[in-house]
Amino acid sequence: MPDAMIQVNDVYKIYKMGKMEVKALRGVSVEIQAGEFVAIMGPSGSGKSTFMNLIGCLDKPSKGSYKLDGIEAASLNDNQLADIRNRKIGFVFQTFNLLARTSALRNVELPMLYSNTKNREQVAKRALEMVGLAERMGHKPNELSGGQQQRVAIARALVNDPPVIFGDEPTGNLDSRTSEEIMDIFQKLHASGKTVVLVTHEEDIAEHAERIIRFKDGKVVSDEKVTKRRIAAEELAAMAIPADDAE
C-alpha cells in the first residue's frame, strides 16, 4: 500500500522561552491520504496553527517524524524545505498576501519565478481563468473585492500544479456568500484529485470537508468523518432563491 500523502508520527513541537518550555504539539500522529479533503479545527492555542506550519514545511518538529509524499521533511535543511514547498504545496492564506502594486496576473506568476517555469504568463492566465477572473487579470489588489483577491491567491497556489493545497482560514475575512464561492473552488480542486487541508474556526466551513481533525492543548482529541457534508454549489443555489419563493 502506498504511503499516505501526509504522515505525522509522534510529533512534538517545543518552544523555549527563557528557562520555560512550551509544548505546542504533544505526540501528534496523523495520516492524510492523497486526494482527501480534511479540515483542522481547535480553539486558540490548541496547536492547529503549529501543526499547519509543520505539515506545510514552514517549520520542523522538535521530535518525531513527518513525511510529505514519502519524503522525510523533518530532516531537510531550509533550502530543501523551500524547494519541497514550491513543488508540493500551494498555500492560501486568510489575508491573501498579494503584492499591492502588482497586477493579479503578475501576483499569480510569482511562484513560477522560483521553479524556472516556461510560459509563465500563459500558465498564470489559465489559472486565473480557472477561478473565474479572466476579466480581472490586469487589476491590482486594491481594485478587487475580497473574494476576488482570494481567487487570485488560489490561482497563485495552483500554478506549479502541487498535489497538496493548504488553506489557512481562507474564508475568515469574507461574507457568507463569498465564503461559499471560495469553498466551491476548494471542493472542485478536491474533485480534480488535489489533497486539500483547511484550517478554520468555522464549523460550517469545516463541514465542506470529508473529515474533521480537532486539536486541544497540543493533541488530537478527535478525528471523524463528516456525516452530512455541505456542498457549496448547493448552498449557493439555495442562496439564489428569493425568500418569497422558498418553502
Can you describe this structure?
This protein is of the alpha/beta class and 247 residues long. The chain has one domain (33-60, 77-245): P-loop containing nucleotide triphosphate hydrolases (Rossmann fold, 3-Layer(aba) Sandwich). It contains eight helices and ten strands. The chain has helices at residues 48-55, 78-88, 104-113, 120-130, 146-158, 176-191, 203-206, 232-239, and strands spanning 6-17, 20-32, 37-41, 63-68, 71-72, 89-93, 164-168, 195-199, 211-216, 219-225. The N and C termini lie far apart (49 Å).
Write the layout of secondary structure elements.
Layout: E1 6-17, E2 20-32, E3 37-41, H1 48-55, E4 63-68, E5 71-72, H2 78-88, E6 89-93, H3 104-113, H4 120-130, H5 146-158, E7 164-168, H6 176-191, E8 195-199, H7 203-206, E9 211-216, E10 219-225, H8 232-239
Helix pairs in contact: 3-4, 3-5, 4-5, 5-6, 6-8
Structure summarized in a few sentences:
It is built from 8 helices and 10 strands. It is of the alpha/beta class and about 250 residues long.
Fill in the CATH topology: Rossmann fold
- What portion of residues belong to β-strands? 25-35%
Give start-end ranges of low-pLDDT stretches: 243-247
Major sheet characteristics: 6 strands, mixed
Q: How large is the count of helical segments?
A: 8
Structural class: alpha/beta
Distance between the termini: 49 Å
The portion of residues assigned to helices is 25-40%
CATH-defined superfamily: P-loop containing nucleotide triphosphate hydrolases
Q: What's the total count of β strands?
A: 10
